[in-house]
């Protein structure tokens, strides 16, 4: 069925159901517009706390995925409990394996400060105790007692030596025993001068004395050991007496088994290393104690309300999982528990972590390790070089921390499909897929939300508010971006850009409000920044470098429509499609396909075209015609099936020799039944041919044929609507190829009569007749000879 669209049917919508003059009267938008499917999916992922129900959010860039996810998670996180703080402390049994301590939220910071105060108090208490007069007096008494006992042992030795006729002297070289003769000690050389009998007697007595000396020296050494031990025990008792109340007080403030165990270890270590403490000066004591007896608080949730929501913009391995830092001393690398640094996974523990898929996958080992910690439900800190086993540096092995984390990855549908197909772990860990739509229905509720959204942007960016005309123009732009007059674009990044540029233009002109003209100027400025190639193509059409014809009629030639997509800008360009027929091997030759300039979809479309020709015209005889179809002046690959209707019309024109109006361009695909199917890029195609007609000059007969199903996709510029109103440009919708035949060829297509033949003097009849004629020629039966035989029979 042929239908010529009226200008008032295109871009038709109003804001009569909304009562406002400017967006200043409209309250700002709360929440998000549309995306019900994504919202429900994310809610499901949040609700299910089982391992593996992490969320992968997919959708086009600019649909507000990250903002939506952050807002939604923050709302949910406020209602969740604040997770624990975490810190690392020195491990006195194995310094290379720091211990992790968990605190209730806020207690980690308080314990860290309390620990610093405690160590200061300990240092001060020990200094006072060991420098007190009472301590000095006790030490003096112990030393006097020891000296007296030592003196008594020595005096006893001297008395026994005197009985044996010797004197003993204590020298740096040891104990010297000298025999006494006539009341005088004899030196060794004098002893050697005595008679042999006297020497033997002295040696016998000296042996007895030596046993006595050894015994006395042993008792003195034992006394020394006992004295040092008692001195050490006294220091420990003094230290414990001074610091124990301080530790008891801190332990009572924190009902935490890890804290209690750590404080006991600290107290024990201080007591066992008192001699080192006493040898240090005050500055050294404080520095070493503060480093060793401190808390490295890696997760501090004291300022949180609810669970954390962390968005990691640079998900490197160390940014996600933390690292162990080193410092150089004496030319060597050193580290300790205080050099452990947390990652985003630590900070988000108990809450939510948001990362961009593309950034995550581009970082070495980050994706692998994220999967590992999610599977193990534990997180530790280990540098990448040690994880990979490429470093021999001695490092720490911190205790692992339990992990309760919901990860939300934001990425493209392509990355989701890639991970789903190639990574079995991905399916286990990310069972929730939240898809963001790129469009939303254009109903009164969503339009109202759009107006509120414009109001929000104006308030947030401090822009002049939009009047009704400006709002209507933004809605028009949203429909145009969606490519559907019944939809609105959900790619809000583009909408914000238009609002900002329009508002800034209004401000530049000194206007208190943003009008439709400002929005239109901003839109045109945005296009002008990107449409250089489009203008070059228009110029080539104007100068006939692109040999497009928009007037007259030609056999086997038609204007098709194609779209060039440059990423940030797409535009339509008419393309001349020609068809030639001749006797030969039956079939349709696609010149683009033969030259390897045809994509698979286009090749399929040509095969469908062959099926259509055969099913419609070759029921009584086989096709005996060769045909070639070419996209003229196209030197890149042709893909898609949107030109199959134009190709079919060109081919039918070439066979029937009925000319086609060159002022009419055609887009649409056909199936084997000859039905016209919808295609993409309708707006760009219509506007592309309009520009070509405008460049060459209107004759009042020009226009575009589109599939009926594509009528809703028309969101055109005002210029084209005005041209339609003036009768300079037309748009027809068709349902079948026969509808298109009647428009472009100016003849009826021709139905099949009761006799099974096409109506006479119709295009289908002429096609059928010519194909039958070609079959006979191919069989070697000339038409003239056949007529003579018929006359002879008569």
TrEMBL record:
One of its GO terms (biological process) is protein catabolic process. GO terms for molecular function: ATP binding; ATP-dependent peptidase activity; serine-type endopeptidase activity. It is an enzyme of class 3 (hydrolase). It catalyses: Hydrolysis of proteins in presence of ATP. The active site is at residues 642, 685. Its EC number is 3.4.21.53. Gene3D superfamilies: 1.10.8.60, 3.30.230.10, P-loop containing nucleotide triphosphate hydrolases. Residues 552-747 form the Lon proteolytic domain. Belongs to the peptidase S16 family. This is endopeptidase La. It comes from Thermotoga maritima (strain ATCC 43589 / DSM 3109 / JCM 10099 / NBRC 100826 / MSB8). The lineage of its organism: Bacteria, Thermotogati, Thermotogota, Thermotogae, Thermotogales.
């Amino acid at each position: 069925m042929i239908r010529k669209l009226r200008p008032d049917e295109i871009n038709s919508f109003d804001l009569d159901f909304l009562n406002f003059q400017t967006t200043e009267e409209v309250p700002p938008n709360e929440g998000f517009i549309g995306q019900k499917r994504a919202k429900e999916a994310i809610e499901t992922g949040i609700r299910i706390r089982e391992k593996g129900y992490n969320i992968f959010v997919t959708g086009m860039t600019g649909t507000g995925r990250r903002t939506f996810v952050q807002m939604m998670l923050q709302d949910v996180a406020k209602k969740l409990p604040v997770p624990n703080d975490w810190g690392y402390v020195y491990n006195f049994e194995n310094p290379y394996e720091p211990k992790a301590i968990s605190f209730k939220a806020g207690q980690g910071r308080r314990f860290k400060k309390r620990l610093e105060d405690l160590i200061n108090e300990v240092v001060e208490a020990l200094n006072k105790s060991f420098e007190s007069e009472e301590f000095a007096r006790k030490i003096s008494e112990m030393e006097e007692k020891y000296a007296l006992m030592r003196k008594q042992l020595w005096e006893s030795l001297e008395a026994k030596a005197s009985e044996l006729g010797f004197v003993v002297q204590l020298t740096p070289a040891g104990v010297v025993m000298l025999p006494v003769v006539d009341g005088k000690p004899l030196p060794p050389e004098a002893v050697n001068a005595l008679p042999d009998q006297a020497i033997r007697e002295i040696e016998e007595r000296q042996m007895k004395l030596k046993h006595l000396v050894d015994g006395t020296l042993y008792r003195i050494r034992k006394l020394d050991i006992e004295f040092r031990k008692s001195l050490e025990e006294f220091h420990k008792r003094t230290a414990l007496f001074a610091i124990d109340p301080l530790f008891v007080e801190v332990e009572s403030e924190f009902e935490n088994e890890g804290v209690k165990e750590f404080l006991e270890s600290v107290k024990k270590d201080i007591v066992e290393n008192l001699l080192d403490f006493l040898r240090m000066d005050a500055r050294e004591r404080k520095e070493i104690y503060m480093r060793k007896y401190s808390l490295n608080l890696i997760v501090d949730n004291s300022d949180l309300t609810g669970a954390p929501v962390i968005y990691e913009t640079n998900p490197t391995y160390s940014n996600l999982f933390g690292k162990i830092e080193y410092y150089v001393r004496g030319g060597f690398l050193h580290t300790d528990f205080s050099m452990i640094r947390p990652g985003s996974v630590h900070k988000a523990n108990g809450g939510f972590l948001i990362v961009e898929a593309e950034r995550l996958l581009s970082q070495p080992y980050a994706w692998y390790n994220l999967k590992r910690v999610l599977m193990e439900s534990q997180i530790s800190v280990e540098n990448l070089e040690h994880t990979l086993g490429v470093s021999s540096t001695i490092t720490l092995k911190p205790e692992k921390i339990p992990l309760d984390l919901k990860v939300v990855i934001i990425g493209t549908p392509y990355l989701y499909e890639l991970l789903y197909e190639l990574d079995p772990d991905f399916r286990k860990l990310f069972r929730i897929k939240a898809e963001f739509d790129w469009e939303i229905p254009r109903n009164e509720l969503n339009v109202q939300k759009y107006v509120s959204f414009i109001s929000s942007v104006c308030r947030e960016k401090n822009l002049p508010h939009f009047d009704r005309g400006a709002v209507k123009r933004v809605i028009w732009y949203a429909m145009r971006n969606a490519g559907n007059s019944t939809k609105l674009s959900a790619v809000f990044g583009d909408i914000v850009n238009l609002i900002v540029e329009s508002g800034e233009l209004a401000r530049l002109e000194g206007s208190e409000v943003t009008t439709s003209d400002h929005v239109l100027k901003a839109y045109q400025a945005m296009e002008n920044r990107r449409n250089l190639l489009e203008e070059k193509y228009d110029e080539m059409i104007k100068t006939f470098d692109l040999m497009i014809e928009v007037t007259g009629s030609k056999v086997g030639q038609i204007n098709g429509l194609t779209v060039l997509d440059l990423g940030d800008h797409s535009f339509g360009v008419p393309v001349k499609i020609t068809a030639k027929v001749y006797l030969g091997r039956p079939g349709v030759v696609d010149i683009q396909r033969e030259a390897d300039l045809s994509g698979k979809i286009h090749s399929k479309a040509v095969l469908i075209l062959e099926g259509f020709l055969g099913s419609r015209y070759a029921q009584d005889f086989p096709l005996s015609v060769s045909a070639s179809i070419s996209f003229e002046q196209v030197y890149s690959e042709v893909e898609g099936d949107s030109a199959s209707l134009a190709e079919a019309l060109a081919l039918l024109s070439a066979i029937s020799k009925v000319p086609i109006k060159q002022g009419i361009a055609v887009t649409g695909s056909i199936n084997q039944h000859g039905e016209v199917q919808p295609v993409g890029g309708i707006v760009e195609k219509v506007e592309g041919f309009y520009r070509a007609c405008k460049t060459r000059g209107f004759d009042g007969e020009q226009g575009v044929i589109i599939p009926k199903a594509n009528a809703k996709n028309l969101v055109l510029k005002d210029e084209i609507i005005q041209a339609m109103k003036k009768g300079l440009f037309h748009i027809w919708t068709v349902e079948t190829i026969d509808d298109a035949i009647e428009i472009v060829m100016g003849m009826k297509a021709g139905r099949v009569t009761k006799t099974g033949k096409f109506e006479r003097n119709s295009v289908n009849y002429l096609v059928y007749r010519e194909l039958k004629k070609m079959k006979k020629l191919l069989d070697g039966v000339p038409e003239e000879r056949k007529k003579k035989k018929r006359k002879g029979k008569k």
